[in-house]
Amino acid sequence: AALRLIPSPHAKTDDIRPSPNPSHELQRTLRALPNGEWPEVFHTLNAVRRLGLHHGALLEPHLHGVVRDVLKQSENLRSAVKKNAILTLADLWRGLGPTCDPELALVAPVLIKRVAESNGFLIDTAEEAIATIVDRATPRRALEAFICCSRSKNPQIRAETAIVVYKLVQRMGNRLRPNSKEVAKILEEMPLFLQDANPKTRTYGRHLLHHLLGAGLATEEELGRAVPAHVLKKALASTFAAGGHVGLPPDLGAAPGGGGALPR
Asked: What one GO molecular function would you report for this record (predicted)?
């Protein structure tokens, strides 16, 4: 059947049903996604969502090219297409999970950038997409991808990166080990988080520091080698709750579809 030319409202994930002819839909998608006009692209993104959610084995051999084309559409001049592209990324991880891990290095900076846009109308959609990816990706691979954004020149991107890194560390739980490559990378970035000009970045840097100490992932001696002494002293003396009790922030919540909503 021909694609409708007038976009309908953005479909909810739970309302997307399997395709009656997924092989045909895949071939049409591969042709239309990179080259179609915007109404066709909008509906083609829905086809990608359907294939990712219900026909992952069929889509998997084409995943890298499809993700690349979806990211291209996330920069589309049409706001409806932009939003549907971000919804598509979330549904790819919902349907395919860690199979999408190799695409994290491409996807993480794009979504962090969207969340960091001060006047962006896509902030909530991008936050939910990140939360879904954090929930469905291999945590170690997601941590590697998102923590790279901490070196951005944009202070808001650095702040959102600190939040995502903290959430990933929480999710990894006892799978995160002392002296691991992941902890070493967090310690490497810790001085940047704790000394950032943005107070949100510093706050989540302190949350990370206290989590590492509380979970036995790093000692004060190890932190002292990574963080300037005066910065570490101030961070260790900080409090997160009224009454002077040092503690962790509240749970970061849950987003639709299984992810955790990121705090603002």
From this structure: microtubule binding
Token pair of 190, please?
């810790």
pLDDT tens for 155-175 read 999 999 999 999 999 988 888
Q: Where in the chain are the domains?
A: 11-100, 138-240
- Rounded to whole angstroms, the Cα distance separating 224 from 211 reads 16
Helix (H, G, I), strand (E, B) or coil at 203: helix
Q: What is the pLDDT of residues 167-216, one digit of tens each?
A: 999 988 888 999 999 999 999 999 999 999 999 999 999 999 999 999 99
d(CA 207, CA 240): 8
DSSP 67-129: HHHHHHHTT-SSHHHHHHHHHHHHHHHHHHGGGGGGGHHHHHHHHHHHHH-TT-TTHHHHHHH
Its pTM stands at: 0.85
DSSP 8-class letter at 34 = T
C-alpha distances out from residue 135 to 211, 255, 259, Å: 19, 10, 5
Distance CA 179, CA 137 (A): 22
| 3-class SS letters over 207-254 | HHHHHHHHCCCCCHHHHHHHCCHHHHHHHHHCCCCCCCCCCCCCCCCC
**pLDDT(24) > 60:** yes
Tokens 């900076």 belong to which residue?
Answer: 109
Over residues 71-86, the pLDDT tens digits come to 999 999 999 999 999 9
Residue 228 has, within 13 A of its CA and on its CB side, a CA count of 8
**H or E element that contains 148:** none
C-alpha 178/C-alpha 213 separation (Å) is: 10
